[in-house]
Amino acid sequence: MLTSQSSSLTGGARGKETQVFLALQNLNVMPDDYFAIGDDDHLADDVVAAIARHHQGVLPKERIGKAFGRTKSFWQNPLFRGGYASTILIGGNKAREISVLLALQERGVTPNAFYAIGNNHQLAKDVVAAIAKHRIFSSPEDQIIQLLQINDVIWHDPAITEESIAALGKPPVPNKSDAKGLYCVTLLHSTGDVAKDLLRSWAACGYVHGMAGIWSYGPINRIAQHVRQRAGAKTRPTGLRWQVCELGRTFLGKSIKTVHPKKQMWFGYEAIQIATMHPKWAKAMNGKDIPFVSLFDLESNIIADADWGETPCLYFDARDENVSLHFHSDDFTPDGHGPGILL
Q: Which of 80, 151, 204, 268 makes the best surface tag, with the fewest CB within 10 Å?
Protein backbone atom coordinates (compact mmCIF):
# COMPACT_ATOMS: atom_id res chain seq x y z
CA MET A 1 0.00 0.00 0.00
CA LEU A 2 1.28 3.47 -0.83
CA THR A 3 1.42 5.66 2.27
CA SER A 4 2.57 9.16 3.10
CA GLN A 5 3.84 9.01 6.65
CA SER A 6 5.59 12.36 7.07
CA SER A 7 6.56 15.45 5.15
CA SER A 8 8.34 18.74 5.74
CA LEU A 9 7.07 20.32 2.56
CA THR A 10 5.66 23.83 2.73
CA GLY A 11 2.54 25.27 1.24
CA GLY A 12 0.27 22.35 2.04
CA ALA A 13 2.38 20.06 -0.12
CA ARG A 14 1.77 17.12 2.15
CA GLY A 15 -1.81 17.06 0.95
CA LYS A 16 -0.65 17.19 -2.66
CA GLU A 17 1.79 14.39 -1.99
CA THR A 18 -0.97 12.26 -0.48
CA GLN A 19 -3.12 12.87 -3.55
CA VAL A 20 -0.33 11.52 -5.77
CA PHE A 21 -0.12 8.25 -3.89
CA LEU A 22 -3.85 7.84 -3.58
CA ALA A 23 -4.08 8.25 -7.35
CA LEU A 24 -1.40 5.61 -7.94
CA GLN A 25 -2.78 3.27 -5.29
CA ASN A 26 -6.24 3.48 -6.84
CA LEU A 27 -4.64 2.29 -10.08
CA ASN A 28 -3.10 -0.72 -8.29
CA VAL A 29 0.51 0.50 -8.15
CA MET A 30 2.43 -1.45 -5.51
CA PRO A 31 5.39 -0.01 -3.55
CA ASP A 32 8.00 -2.06 -5.42
CA ASP A 33 6.52 -0.92 -8.72
CA TYR A 34 6.96 2.70 -7.67
CA PHE A 35 10.48 2.20 -6.29
CA ALA A 36 11.53 0.69 -9.62
CA ILE A 37 11.52 4.21 -11.09
CA GLY A 38 14.75 4.80 -9.19
CA ASP A 39 16.30 1.53 -10.35
CA ASP A 40 15.54 1.46 -14.08
CA ASP A 41 16.67 4.30 -16.34
CA HIS A 42 14.29 3.30 -19.14
CA LEU A 43 11.35 3.28 -16.74
CA ALA A 44 12.31 6.69 -15.33
CA ASP A 45 12.58 8.08 -18.86
CA ASP A 46 9.12 6.80 -19.76
CA VAL A 47 7.55 8.13 -16.54
CA VAL A 48 9.02 11.57 -17.19
CA ALA A 49 7.82 11.46 -20.80
CA ALA A 50 4.30 10.71 -19.52
CA ILE A 51 4.46 13.65 -17.12
CA ALA A 52 5.80 15.98 -19.81
CA ARG A 53 2.87 15.19 -22.10
CA HIS A 54 0.50 16.64 -19.51
CA HIS A 55 2.47 19.26 -17.57
CA GLN A 56 4.83 22.07 -18.52
CA GLY A 57 6.78 21.69 -15.29
CA VAL A 58 9.35 19.33 -16.82
CA LEU A 59 12.46 21.35 -17.52
CA PRO A 60 14.60 20.93 -20.64
CA LYS A 61 18.07 19.51 -20.02
CA GLU A 62 19.82 22.84 -20.37
CA ARG A 63 17.79 24.33 -17.50
CA ILE A 64 18.01 21.50 -14.98
CA GLY A 65 21.38 22.48 -13.51
CA LYS A 66 20.43 26.14 -13.21
CA ALA A 67 17.16 25.38 -11.49
CA PHE A 68 18.32 22.81 -8.97
CA GLY A 69 22.09 23.12 -8.82
CA ARG A 70 24.44 20.34 -9.83
CA THR A 71 24.50 18.55 -6.49
CA LYS A 72 21.31 19.54 -4.69
CA SER A 73 18.06 17.72 -4.86
CA PHE A 74 14.97 19.80 -5.44
CA TRP A 75 13.81 18.37 -2.15
CA GLN A 76 16.56 20.62 -0.68
CA ASN A 77 15.41 23.55 -2.82
CA PRO A 78 14.27 26.78 -1.08
CA LEU A 79 10.72 25.76 -1.95
CA PHE A 80 11.05 23.26 0.89
CA ARG A 81 12.39 23.30 4.41
CA GLY A 82 14.16 20.77 6.56
CA GLY A 83 16.51 19.19 4.04
CA TYR A 84 15.23 15.97 2.49
CA ALA A 85 11.49 15.99 2.85
CA SER A 86 10.21 12.50 3.52
CA THR A 87 7.69 12.99 0.77
CA ILE A 88 7.23 9.43 -0.35
CA LEU A 89 7.99 7.29 2.64
CA ILE A 90 6.50 4.06 1.34
CA GLY A 91 6.98 0.96 3.38
CA GLY A 92 9.54 2.75 5.53
CA ASN A 93 12.21 2.71 2.81
CA LYS A 94 13.49 6.26 2.65
CA ALA A 95 16.62 5.41 0.64
CA ARG A 96 14.59 4.02 -2.24
CA GLU A 97 12.16 6.93 -1.93
CA ILE A 98 15.02 9.36 -2.43
CA SER A 99 16.38 7.40 -5.39
CA VAL A 100 13.04 7.84 -7.16
CA LEU A 101 12.97 11.58 -6.47
CA LEU A 102 16.52 11.99 -7.70
CA ALA A 103 15.78 10.00 -10.87
CA LEU A 104 12.87 12.35 -11.59
CA GLN A 105 14.79 15.47 -10.68
CA GLU A 106 17.76 14.73 -12.91
CA ARG A 107 15.30 14.43 -15.78
CA GLY A 108 13.84 17.87 -15.06
CA VAL A 109 10.66 17.04 -13.13
CA THR A 110 9.71 19.91 -10.82
CA PRO A 111 7.65 19.46 -7.65
CA ASN A 112 4.54 20.91 -9.27
CA ALA A 113 4.87 18.51 -12.19
CA PHE A 114 5.18 15.64 -9.73
CA TYR A 115 2.13 16.75 -7.74
CA ALA A 116 0.07 17.00 -10.93
CA ILE A 117 -0.14 13.20 -10.92
CA GLY A 118 -2.55 13.52 -8.00
CA ASN A 119 -5.10 15.75 -9.71
CA ASN A 120 -4.91 14.68 -13.35
CA HIS A 121 -6.43 11.24 -13.80
CA GLN A 122 -5.19 10.77 -17.35
CA LEU A 123 -1.66 11.73 -16.29
CA ALA A 124 -1.84 9.21 -13.45
CA LYS A 125 -3.02 6.53 -15.90
CA ASP A 126 -0.16 7.34 -18.28
CA VAL A 127 2.37 7.11 -15.43
CA VAL A 128 0.93 3.76 -14.39
CA ALA A 129 1.08 2.55 -18.00
CA ALA A 130 4.75 3.51 -18.14
CA ILE A 131 5.41 1.61 -14.92
CA ALA A 132 3.50 -1.45 -16.11
CA LYS A 133 5.51 -1.54 -19.33
CA HIS A 134 8.70 -2.06 -17.34
CA ARG A 135 7.47 -4.01 -14.33
CA ILE A 136 7.68 -7.19 -16.33
CA PHE A 137 9.64 -9.52 -14.06
CA SER A 138 8.19 -11.84 -11.46
CA SER A 139 9.57 -11.77 -7.93
CA PRO A 140 11.67 -14.73 -6.75
CA GLU A 141 8.84 -15.71 -4.41
CA ASP A 142 6.34 -15.82 -7.26
CA GLN A 143 8.77 -17.83 -9.39
CA ILE A 144 9.17 -20.43 -6.67
CA ILE A 145 5.39 -20.84 -6.43
CA GLN A 146 5.14 -21.06 -10.20
CA LEU A 147 7.88 -23.66 -10.60
CA LEU A 148 6.50 -25.87 -7.83
CA GLN A 149 3.08 -25.75 -9.48
CA ILE A 150 4.56 -26.61 -12.88
CA ASN A 151 6.38 -29.54 -11.34
CA ASP A 152 3.25 -30.80 -9.58
CA VAL A 153 1.18 -30.66 -12.76
CA ILE A 154 3.65 -31.41 -15.58
CA TRP A 155 7.19 -32.43 -14.74
CA HIS A 156 6.70 -34.62 -11.64
CA ASP A 157 10.38 -34.38 -10.74
CA PRO A 158 10.91 -35.55 -7.14
CA ALA A 159 14.09 -33.45 -6.90
CA ILE A 160 12.16 -30.19 -7.28
CA THR A 161 10.84 -29.31 -3.82
CA GLU A 162 10.58 -26.29 -1.54
CA GLU A 163 13.58 -27.64 0.35
CA SER A 164 15.76 -28.06 -2.74
CA ILE A 165 14.93 -24.52 -3.88
CA ALA A 166 15.63 -23.11 -0.42
CA ALA A 167 18.99 -24.89 -0.47
CA LEU A 168 20.02 -22.70 -3.42
CA GLY A 169 20.25 -19.76 -1.06
CA LYS A 170 19.27 -16.17 -1.69
CA PRO A 171 18.79 -15.29 -5.38
CA PRO A 172 21.48 -13.02 -6.85
CA VAL A 173 20.57 -9.40 -7.55
CA PRO A 174 20.63 -8.59 -11.27
CA ASN A 175 22.36 -5.54 -12.68
CA LYS A 176 20.39 -2.34 -13.03
CA SER A 177 18.76 -2.24 -16.47
CA ASP A 178 19.88 0.58 -18.75
CA ALA A 179 20.37 1.34 -22.44
CA LYS A 180 23.06 -1.35 -22.64
CA GLY A 181 21.31 -4.20 -20.88
CA LEU A 182 17.94 -5.56 -19.74
CA TYR A 183 18.45 -7.80 -16.71
CA CYS A 184 16.45 -10.18 -14.56
CA VAL A 185 17.03 -13.14 -12.27
CA THR A 186 15.25 -16.41 -13.05
CA LEU A 187 14.74 -19.77 -11.37
CA LEU A 188 15.78 -22.38 -13.94
CA HIS A 189 15.97 -26.16 -14.14
CA SER A 190 17.97 -28.39 -16.49
CA THR A 191 18.15 -32.13 -17.02
CA GLY A 192 21.35 -31.85 -19.07
CA ASP A 193 19.60 -33.22 -22.17
CA VAL A 194 18.96 -30.55 -24.84
CA ALA A 195 15.92 -32.20 -26.43
CA LYS A 196 14.35 -33.07 -23.09
CA ASP A 197 14.92 -29.57 -21.71
CA LEU A 198 13.36 -28.05 -24.80
CA LEU A 199 10.27 -30.25 -24.55
CA ARG A 200 9.87 -29.74 -20.80
CA SER A 201 10.33 -26.00 -21.12
CA TRP A 202 7.79 -25.68 -23.93
CA ALA A 203 5.22 -27.73 -22.00
CA ALA A 204 5.69 -25.46 -18.98
CA CYS A 205 5.37 -22.38 -21.17
CA GLY A 206 2.10 -23.70 -22.55
CA TYR A 207 0.86 -24.36 -19.04
CA VAL A 208 1.46 -20.74 -18.01
CA HIS A 209 0.42 -18.96 -21.22
CA GLY A 210 -2.20 -21.47 -22.35
CA MET A 211 -1.78 -23.62 -25.44
CA ALA A 212 -3.46 -20.91 -27.51
CA GLY A 213 -0.88 -18.47 -26.17
CA ILE A 214 2.16 -20.25 -27.64
CA TRP A 215 3.17 -21.09 -31.21
CA SER A 216 6.08 -22.98 -32.73
CA TYR A 217 7.42 -23.56 -36.23
CA GLY A 218 6.03 -27.05 -36.51
CA PRO A 219 5.26 -29.66 -33.83
CA ILE A 220 7.53 -29.26 -30.83
CA ASN A 221 8.45 -32.97 -30.87
CA ARG A 222 9.78 -32.57 -34.41
CA ILE A 223 11.63 -29.38 -33.49
CA ALA A 224 13.36 -31.21 -30.63
CA GLN A 225 14.74 -33.67 -33.17
CA HIS A 226 16.22 -30.85 -35.25
CA VAL A 227 17.85 -28.81 -32.48
CA ARG A 228 21.18 -29.40 -30.80
CA GLN A 229 23.64 -27.55 -28.62
CA ARG A 230 25.99 -25.49 -30.72
CA ALA A 231 29.64 -26.52 -30.85
CA GLY A 232 31.62 -24.50 -28.34
CA ALA A 233 28.61 -23.69 -26.19
CA LYS A 234 29.35 -23.66 -22.48
CA THR A 235 28.01 -26.60 -20.48
CA ARG A 236 25.01 -25.83 -18.31
CA PRO A 237 24.76 -26.96 -14.73
CA THR A 238 22.05 -29.55 -14.19
CA GLY A 239 19.29 -29.30 -11.64
CA LEU A 240 17.94 -26.11 -10.13
CA ARG A 241 19.68 -22.74 -10.17
CA TRP A 242 19.09 -19.03 -9.89
CA GLN A 243 20.43 -17.34 -13.01
CA VAL A 244 21.01 -13.68 -13.83
CA CYS A 245 20.00 -13.09 -17.45
CA GLU A 246 20.45 -10.30 -20.00
CA LEU A 247 17.52 -10.23 -22.37
CA GLY A 248 18.94 -9.24 -25.74
CA ARG A 249 19.60 -5.53 -25.34
CA THR A 250 23.40 -5.72 -25.05
CA PHE A 251 23.99 -7.28 -28.48
CA LEU A 252 20.76 -6.19 -30.17
CA GLY A 253 20.93 -6.85 -33.91
CA LYS A 254 24.10 -8.98 -33.78
CA SER A 255 24.33 -12.37 -35.48
CA ILE A 256 25.94 -15.49 -34.08
CA LYS A 257 28.84 -15.12 -36.52
CA THR A 258 29.74 -11.67 -35.19
CA VAL A 259 29.52 -12.27 -31.45
CA HIS A 260 30.05 -15.98 -30.73
CA PRO A 261 33.83 -15.58 -30.36
CA LYS A 262 33.14 -13.50 -27.26
CA LYS A 263 32.50 -16.82 -25.49
CA GLN A 264 29.44 -15.77 -23.57
CA MET A 265 27.01 -18.33 -22.24
CA TRP A 266 24.13 -17.55 -24.57
CA PHE A 267 20.49 -18.52 -24.19
CA GLY A 268 19.43 -22.03 -25.07
CA TYR A 269 16.27 -23.66 -23.70
CA GLU A 270 16.54 -21.06 -20.90
CA ALA A 271 14.73 -18.44 -22.99
CA ILE A 272 11.56 -20.55 -22.90
CA GLN A 273 11.81 -21.01 -19.14
CA ILE A 274 12.35 -17.27 -18.71
CA ALA A 275 9.17 -16.65 -20.72
CA THR A 276 7.48 -19.10 -18.35
CA MET A 277 8.76 -17.56 -15.12
CA HIS A 278 8.28 -14.00 -16.38
CA PRO A 279 5.09 -14.11 -18.49
CA LYS A 280 4.74 -10.32 -18.46
CA TRP A 281 8.19 -10.02 -20.06
CA ALA A 282 7.25 -12.55 -22.73
CA LYS A 283 4.17 -10.52 -23.67
CA ALA A 284 6.05 -7.21 -23.47
CA MET A 285 8.64 -8.18 -26.13
CA ASN A 286 8.26 -5.64 -28.92
CA GLY A 287 11.51 -5.82 -30.88
CA LYS A 288 12.44 -2.32 -29.73
CA ASP A 289 13.33 -1.47 -26.14
CA ILE A 290 12.31 -5.01 -25.12
CA PRO A 291 14.00 -7.16 -27.79
CA PHE A 292 12.97 -10.47 -29.19
CA VAL A 293 15.64 -12.98 -28.16
CA SER A 294 17.84 -15.30 -30.21
CA LEU A 295 19.03 -18.56 -28.66
CA PHE A 296 22.66 -18.57 -29.80
CA ASP A 297 23.75 -21.66 -27.86
CA LEU A 298 21.36 -23.80 -29.90
CA GLU A 299 21.38 -24.50 -33.62
CA SER A 300 18.87 -26.20 -35.85
CA ASN A 301 18.22 -27.50 -39.36
CA ILE A 302 14.45 -27.65 -39.21
CA ILE A 303 13.92 -25.24 -42.12
CA ALA A 304 16.70 -26.48 -44.41
CA ASP A 305 16.20 -30.05 -43.13
CA ALA A 306 19.80 -30.91 -43.95
CA ASP A 307 22.25 -28.11 -43.31
CA TRP A 308 22.80 -26.97 -39.76
CA GLY A 309 22.99 -23.19 -39.69
CA GLU A 310 19.81 -21.87 -38.14
CA THR A 311 19.29 -20.04 -34.86
CA PRO A 312 16.14 -20.50 -32.77
CA CYS A 313 14.47 -17.30 -31.60
CA LEU A 314 11.66 -16.40 -29.26
CA TYR A 315 9.34 -13.46 -29.83
CA PHE A 316 5.85 -12.24 -29.01
CA ASP A 317 3.42 -12.05 -31.90
CA ALA A 318 1.25 -9.09 -30.91
CA ARG A 319 -1.25 -9.75 -33.70
CA ASP A 320 -2.00 -13.33 -32.67
CA GLU A 321 -1.06 -12.72 -29.03
CA ASN A 322 1.23 -15.70 -28.61
CA VAL A 323 4.77 -16.45 -27.52
CA SER A 324 6.39 -17.81 -30.66
CA LEU A 325 9.36 -20.09 -31.29
CA HIS A 326 10.84 -19.56 -34.75
CA PHE A 327 14.21 -19.84 -36.52
CA HIS A 328 16.46 -17.59 -38.58
CA SER A 329 19.70 -18.05 -40.49
CA ASP A 330 23.01 -17.87 -38.64
CA ASP A 331 24.12 -15.32 -41.24
CA PHE A 332 21.90 -12.53 -39.97
CA THR A 333 19.62 -11.50 -37.14
CA PRO A 334 16.17 -10.09 -37.97
CA ASP A 335 15.30 -6.57 -36.88
CA GLY A 336 14.47 -6.32 -33.22
CA HIS A 337 16.27 -9.51 -32.17
CA GLY A 338 19.20 -9.79 -29.78
CA PRO A 339 20.96 -12.77 -28.23
CA GLY A 340 20.18 -13.40 -24.58
CA ILE A 341 23.09 -13.94 -22.18
CA LEU A 342 23.39 -16.04 -19.02
CA LEU A 343 25.62 -14.15 -16.60
A: 151
